[in-house]
Amino acid sequence: MNPNRKIGQTLALTEEDYIAAAKAVSTRSEYAKDVRYYLASGGTIPATVSQVVTFITTMAVNLAVATIEKRLVSLHVEHVERGHKSPVHDPRIKQLMKGVRRSLGVGQRQVTAIEKNTLIDMWSAAAKGRPVQAARTMALLAIGWAGAFRRSELVSLTWADVSWLDSGIEITLKTSKVDQTGVGFVKFIPLAYGDRCPVKALKHWQEVCGNETGYIFMPVNRHDQIGSKPLTAHAVAQIVKRIIVLTGRDPDLYSGHSLRAGFATAGTLQGIPSYQLMQQTGHRSEATLQKYVRIGKRRQIPSLL
After folding, report:
1. Residue 170 lies inside a defined structural domain of this protein
2. pLDDT at position 301
3. How many CA atoms lie within 13 A of 8 on its CB side?
4. Do 261 and 139 meet the contact criterion of CB atoms below 8 Å apart?
5. Total structural domains in the chain?
6. Looking at residue 10, what is its pLDDT?
7. 160-184 burial string, b = 16+ CB within 10 Å, else e?
8. Which of 24, 70, 152, 229 has the greatest count of CB atoms below 10 A from its CB?
9. How far apart are CA 143 and CA 158, in angstroms?
10. How far apart, in Å, are the Cα atoms of 55 and each of 47, 101, 169?
11. d(CA 3, CA 94)
12. Which residues of 83-122 are buried (b: 16+ CB within 10 A; e: fewer)?
């Protein structure tokens, strides 16, 4: 968007504005980050085929194929949006990527899902922290897991997005990876029996932080003071890893995505149909959900001994 446009000023949106709006903020951010990696490696825009070859061979030393491909997509989009011919689809690049895929393999690293027992352990570990931080972290873990939220969705939530019901809460995502047009996607989280209830955890966090407006999940410093800005997606992953360490597990096996993966895996183990899981996860196709379903079903195989 035009940075010089003043709030309330009635100007027609430009083509650039509409193109930018077609992509989620997180997507644009990832594109920009990938392009910065390319430029830092000595590349230029527009890029030559030789520059892209060098970029790929450098990345292939320590990056997964999926990461390399993602950065090439970002580089391609950058060229298209600037009106340059993209070198990414050059036959030389395509041949090089075939070799990279064969050499490195295309299997993606799967983070470990946070299953119910792991979540309970994390909940207990988080509860031992400083009061404000504990309330924030317990609500973050519970809502992130029960709502099958992506990290970017969690940090974008505001108190205005929450509807309190007798049976639980509804949380409206105004925009997300699956709803970039802003129609809205509603997730329902039911009340749970006992103390380990996501709804009660969120209400407790609201009482502790004293907010009824603004972002829900905020940083809490070492003095147990709440920050003024929302958490970042990266901070969510760091919180998950920090609490995982306190449970005695390997943090390298987990990420912020482990909360979402845990809900899908646990739901499969409980026999919840795929279409109902998709209502919560927001997956647009059952094929995408199947990697979690397969994990759950694999773990249902009984011992024959």
Report:
1. no
2. 62
3. 0
4. no
5. 2
6. 42
7. ebbeeeeebbebebebbeeeeeeee
8. 152
9. 13
10. 10, 15, 47
11. 38
12. eeebbbeeeebeebbeebeeeeeeeeeebbbbbeebbebb
DSSP state string for 233-269: HHHHHHHHHHHHHHTT--GGG--THHHHHHHHHHHHH
Average pLDDT of the residues of the chain: 85
DSSP state string for 95-158: HHHHHHHHHH--PPPPPPP--HHHHHHHHHHHHTS-HHHHHHHHHHHHHHHHTT--HHHHHH-B
| pLDDT value for 173 | 87
Q: Are residues 202 and 241 in the same domain?
A: yes
Who contacts 201 (Cβ-Cβ below 8 Å, separation ≥6)?
135, 138, 139, 142, 143
Distance of CA 168 to the CA centre of its chain: 24
The last residue of a domain, from among 42, 69, 104: 104
Let me know whether 133 and 281 are in one domain. Answer: yes
Tell me which residue range forms the domain holding 238: 116-157+195-291
State which H helix or E strand residue 189 sits in: strand 185-190
Q: How far is the C-alpha of 245 from the C-alpha of 252, rounded, in Å?
A: 10
pTM for the full predicted model = 0.68
**88 and 130 belong to one structural domain:** no
Q: List the structure tokens of 93.
A: 């690049």
Contact 143, 189 (CB under 8 A): yes
Q: Tens digits of per-residue pLDDT, 57-107?
A: 999 888 888 889 999 999 999 999 999 999 999 999 999 999 988 887 755
Using alpha carbons, list the distances in angstroms from residue 173 to 87, 148, 162, 165, 269.
Answer: 37, 12, 9, 17, 27
Residue 167's SS3 state is coil
Helix axis angle, 257-269 to 131-146, nearest 10°: 50
* DSSP secondary structure, 262-298, as one string: HHHHHHHHTT--HHHHHHHH--SSHHHHHHHHHHHHH
